[in-house]
Write a structure and sequence with these properties.
single chain, alpha/beta, Nucleotidyltransferase, domain 5, five-stranded mixed sheet, 16% strand
Length: 228
C-alpha cells in the first residue's frame, strides 16, 4: 500500500510539472492526505456520475453529484449536483433509468465548467465511490480530452470494502449483495431514489460511515487501510 501511495504522489508531481496552466494544474498542485493520516482526519469527497453508457471512450458524463465528509460527518452544505449539456440525443432506455431528458440536459452546463468545479472540490481530498471503474475511467478520459492528460487521485471504494468484509465470512453471497442499495438495506439506512448523482453520492457516503463503524467501532484506522 505504501508503494502504491508513493506512486500516487510521484505521479501527481510529474503530472503537475507537465500540466498546462488551468484547472488540472491547480488540482495537481495540492498534495494528497498522507497514508498514515487517521481516517477521521482525512477530507473525503463522495462522488457519483450518471453517464450515457458504460464505455468512457464512446459515452459521456451526463450528471455529477458530490458531497464532502469531514471528521466522519457528511457536510450537507457542500452538496453539489449538475447536469451536463452532452452531445446527441439520449436513448429512451437510459432516460427511464436516470430521468434526465433531452430537454433537461439541453439546459445543463458545458462539461468544461463542471469538470473544473469538480477538480476544485477534489483538490486535497480522497475520492469515495461505489464501484470505482465508472468514475475513474470517465473522469480520466474526460480530463485527457480537455487537458491532454488524465489526473491521478486516491480512491476509497465502498463496494471493495463490503466485498472484503463478506469474503471473511464462510457463507456464500451473491454479486447483487454488493449493490449500493442492497448493502444499505443491511444497515437499515433510508431508501433514496436511485440513479440521481447527488442521491447516490450521499448514499455512498452514508454506507461508508456505516461500514467503518461496523469494522472499527469507535476507532479511526489510518487512511492506508481503506484505500483502493
Amino acid at each position: 500500500m505504501f508503494s502504491q501511495w508513493f506512486g500516487y504522489e510521484a505521479k501527481r508531481k510529474r503530472l503537475f510539472d507537465k500540466a498546462p496552466a488551468g484547472p488540472l494544474k491547480d488540482y495537481l498542485s495540492i498534495p494528497f492526505p498522507e497514508p498514515k493520516t487517521a481516517l477521521h482526519n482525512t477530507p473525503i469527497l463522495a462522488l457519483d456520475f450518471e453517464t450515457t453508457g458504460l464505455n468512457a471512450k464512446t459515452d459521456q458524463i451526463l450528471s455529477v453529484g458530490h458531497i464532502a465528509i469531514e471528521s466522519f460527518e457528511i457536510l450537507l452544505s457542500s452538496a453539489y449536483h449538475q447536469v451536463i449539456h452532452t452531445q446527441g440525443d439520449l436513448k429512451e432506455e437510459g432516460v427511464i433509468i436516470h430521468q434526465i431528458t433531452d430537454d433537461i440536459k439541453s439546459r445543463g452546463q458545458d462539461v468544461e465548467q463542471v469538470i473544473e468545479k469538480l477538480l476544485q472540490a477534489m483538490a486535497g481530498k480522497v475520492v469515495l465511490v461505489h464501484f470505482a471503474q465508472i468514475e475513474k475511467n470517465f473522469l480520466q478520459y474526460t480530463c485527457k480530452k480537455l487537458y491532454g492528460m488524465a489526473p491521478v487521485f486516491p480512491i476509497i471504494d465502498t463496494l471493495v470494502l463490503a466485498r472484503k468484509r463478506l469474503d471473511q465470512r464462510t457463507a456464500l453471497y451473491s454479486p447483487n449483495d454488493l449493490r449500493l442499495f442492497n448493502l444499505r438495506e443491511k444497515y437499515k439506512l433510508p431508501r433514496y431514489k436511485a440513479h440521481n448523482a447527488l442521491s447516490d453520492a450521499l448514499a455512498t457516503a452514508e454506507l461508508f460511515l456505516a461500514e467503518i463503524e461496523r469494522k472499527y467501532d469507535k476507532k479511526s484506522p489510518p487512511l492506508k487501510s481503506v484505500l483502493l
